[in-house]
Amino acid sequence: VxxxxxxxxxxxxxxxxxxxxxxxxxxxLQQAAQLEITATLQxxxxxxxxxxxxxxxxxxxxxxxxxGTRYEGEFQKSAPHGHGIYVDLDGMRCEGEFKEGLFxxxxxxxxxxxxRYEGEFxxxxxxxxxxxxxxxGTRYxxxFKQGSPYGHGIYIGTDGISCEVELKxxxxxxxxxxxxxxxxxxxGEFKEGLxxxxxxxxxxxxxRYKxxFKQGSPHGHCVYVKxxGTRYEGxFREGVFHRQGVDxxxxxxxxEDGCRVDQSRKLRQNxxxxxxxxxxxxxxxxSNC
Length: 289
Prior knowledge:
The chain is of the alpha+beta class. It has a domain at about 175-255: Histone H3 K4-specific methyltransferase SET7/9 N-terminal domain, CATH 2.20.110. The protein contains two helices and 23 strands. The protein has helices spanning about 15-35, 260-285; strands at about 40, 45-55, 55-65, 70-75, 80-85, 95-100, 100-110, 115-120, 125-135, 140-145, 150-155, 160-170, 170, 175-180, 185-190, 195-200, 210-215, 215-225, 230-235, 240, 245-250, 255, 260. The chain has a 13-stranded antiparallel beta sheet, covered by helices on one side. Strands 14, 15, 16, 17, 18, 19, 20, 21, 22 and 23 form a ten-stranded antiparallel beta sheet that branches. A hairpin with a 5-residue loop joins strand 11 and strand 12. It is elongated, with a radius of gyration of 34 Å. It starts with 13 loop residues before the first helix and ends in a 5-residue tail after the last helix.
């Protein structure tokens, strides 16, 4: 029967692939039956039907747990080992290679919350190259290390815009350039998931920012330009404008320390004259009192 399908073809329809797998499973069980190595085994955890050796699951078989979990595939010394499919009661599904009971090698994971991962596993963890897809369509394609995105990868948002990223233990870490669908552009440095270092932001509406960030907030020298042309050049402290700076309005007026520059100068001049008159008074001596 299998010969009618020919060799596995990547272009074959999903229905044909599923049908072929169905016959392959049947053929393996039939072969095991002919060799008289099939068994139906019961345990406290569930029921097994398939190949056996020394009264243990070994070869191809089906396992159904009392908690509703199911596994069909290859076994070795009672543990899933080789290609198989594991499904739990909540709908979580793993299909791919197993080693000594753990997902290991190439495989596909689909969570009960519809999170999907296609790629490499090591001892049950995401490890190696893979594609991670959120239910909303957001995806990350790149390297994983012991369960978390790690190193270079490509992030694609729900708006279809992609950017190259560097990650460390699942967090953005390193130089990132990101352009949103609305045209806003971010270029900056991240450290453990937070902006930290020089950041350049250019908004589609004309807003521009270039300055330093610290642990996710503007901190240090910066230049900030609003859509109306108002320009602030000075410093931030923990996300708040520092009082020492120059604010240039769209009409050209300059403000320092909250006062327009020409007014600020007058205040300083008046204060200076007052101080000078006081010092002259003391210089004149007590005889003038």
